[in-house]
């Protein structure tokens, strides 16, 4: 009986990961662009040279909406960066394409909803639920990687 072709070779899992992860990176760029726009609209700049260019040193100040954008961005970094590692390694474990797609899609949708909930100030616990939806598949991938690694020690 021929050896089963790993899903990675048949090209279903890795492209799914690359698609979801790259879209999430673009989503982070969008948060950065929104942060810049909010800074301009609220006249709240991080650096004196920026404030001077836009009216005076008094505009080198913090703002609750800018801070919210920065928290959304930081939370992305805390969660999307680990996904870039976990999802890539997981893709090479030969998972079922359907299960892998489900993992990646949950991370993608969870993180998009998390950003919308954070920036849109949606009612709690929308943001926390979205965070959890994206975290569960990441924990699942981490456990599977640990399991596989432990078996190859
Ligand atoms: N660094 C996070 C760790 C926990 C976490 O990521 N919680 C999610 C769901 S409640 C969140 O959106 N935290 C808000 C944030 O990181 O700004 C925190 O300080 O809250």
Structure commentary:
The protein is mainly α. The chain has one domain (5-151): Up-down Bundle (Four Helix Bundle (Hemerythrin (Met), subunit A)). 74% of the residues lie in helices and 0% in strands. It contains 5 helices and no strands. The protein is elongated, with a radius of gyration of 20 Å. The structure holds glutathione. Glutathione binds next to helix 3 and helix 5. Its EC number is 2.5.1.18, 5.3.99.3. Its main location: cytoplasm. InterPro entries: MAPEG-like_dom_sf (IPR023352), Membr-assoc_MAPEG (IPR001129), MGST1-like (IPR040162). The chain crosses the membrane at residues 12-34, 80-98.
Question: Helix count?
Answer: 5
Q: Sum up the overall morphology in one term.
A: elongated
**Helix and strand succession?**
HHHHH
Based on the structure given, which CATH architecture is correct? Up-down Bundle
Instruction: Write down the Rg.
Output: 20 Å
Termini gap:
28 Å
Residues in helices, as a percent range: over 70%
**Please, what is the CATH homologous superfamily?**
Membrane associated eicosanoid/glutathione metabolism-like domain
Q: Structural class of the helix and strand makeup? A: mainly alpha
At the first level of CATH, what is the class? Mainly Alpha
The number of E-state strands comes to 0
- Which cofactor or ligand species appear? glutathione
Largest sheet: none
CATH fold description: Four Helix Bundle (Hemerythrin (Met), subunit A)
Q: What proportion strand?
A: under 5%
Give the tally of structural domains: 1
Low-confidence segments: none
Give the mean pLDDT.
95
């Amino acid at each position: 009986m021929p050896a089963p072709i790993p899903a990675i070779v048949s090209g279903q899992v890795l492209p799914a990961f690359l698609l979801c992860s790259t879209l999430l990176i673009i989503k982070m760029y969008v948060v950065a662009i929104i942060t810049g726009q909010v800074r301009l609209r609220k006249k709240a700049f991080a650096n004196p040279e920026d404030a001077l260019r836009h009216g005076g040193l008094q505009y080198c100040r913090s703002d609750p909406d800018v801070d919210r954008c920065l928290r959304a961005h930081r939370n992305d970094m805390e969660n999307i960066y680990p996904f870039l590692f976990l999802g890539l390694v997981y893709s090479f474990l030969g998972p079922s394409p359907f299960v892998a797609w489900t993992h990646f899609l949950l991370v993608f949708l969870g993180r998009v909803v998390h950003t919308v909930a954070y920036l849109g100030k949606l009612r709690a616990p929308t943001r926390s639920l979205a965070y959890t939806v994206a975290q569960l598949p990441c924990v699942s991938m981490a456990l599977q990687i640990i399991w596989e690694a432990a078996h190859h020690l």
